[in-house]
Design a protein that fits this description.
The chain is α+β, with helices and mostly antiparallel strands. The protein is built from ten helices and 16 strands. A hairpin with a 7-residue loop joins strand 8 and strand 9.
Amino acid sequence: MTQQDSFEISLLVGADHYWDIVEDHIVRGNCPTAVKSKIGYLLSGPTYSKKTNTSKTSMFIVLISYRDEEYNLERFWNLESKCINSKELDEDDDAYIKAYQDRSIEFRENEYFARLPWKRDHDELPTNLAVTKRRTEHVMKRLTQKPDMLKKYGNIIQEQERREFIERVDETAETQGIIHYIPHHPVQKESSTTPIRIVYDCSCRKSPNLLSLNDCLMATSTKLNDLTKILKRFRANPVTITMEIEKAFLHDGLNDDDRDVTRFLWLSNPSDPSSNLQTYRFKSVLYGATCSPFMLNAMILKHLQRYNSTIATLMERDLYVDNILTSLQSEDDAITYYTEARTMIKEAGFNIRSWTSNSENKRTLAKTKNVLDNDINKKVLGM
């Protein structure tokens, strides 16, 4: 292969899994050798050029059969992700999710509140106040050199306080239970609307032999729907709909007893970098904790399972983290779906935004409610 040659990699198979897909039929010839596999014939070996009498060695895949048993999209994706270490849910996990929903999630004042899923008999969680203060001061020093970013950073925290996702802590008040502080830092994004994001480091340890917040929390797998099946159903019917739950994690209420382990520090006066540090804590599920996706998923599923409704069943089936995508037979079905879905989600204290569809009537309706996604190059789950 010369430096001028270019190619695209469509699939990587680890050497430890190569023999899992290779089968026993081999076709040999004067050029590449074809080896049958579960995803089609694998061709490897030299290819000769008539013009230069030189050879090139290559390896590529040709899918020569379209029979369901040989070219199944779901099996292909499973093979592609085979080397990713992911813990699948088993019966014990299902039982744990049900027990968690029954015991740790409650609905009051039109909002869901959840407890953190603590590990049993975990060691003592340190306060982390000193390391959090030091890292927060370092972040402020960096942001002071970029006043625009410092202002945006402060605006995000102010907006979260205004929307009651976080609250100020009265440090003179007597507190019972565990107190823990979490450092945070900015991550810049290539976005005109959200150029900066705040990341909370729940894995911060005061020292290597002490625990972080994430060390003390269960990391139970999130019960995600099969992504391949979601995408196949999305293409099955004429009218498609996609939607996203707005700030899903921040709309999950955090039980009062667990809030003091989510404390963090920020300027008491964001416009004055020399002002004293103010202590805040989260009133909602903290994105950054290892259990946050599990808590969100358990909460949404519990809410949808309250309804004896076909649309609630469709939403539960087509949910992927905080996105829902589906397809329907007609425009009327799409309008009914849109109306009922908004009502059900609103009753949980959530809001659905970024509605879009291939239906002009559906987009018009979403626009009148100010929830239309105006992205003309809308991606579906990142694709």
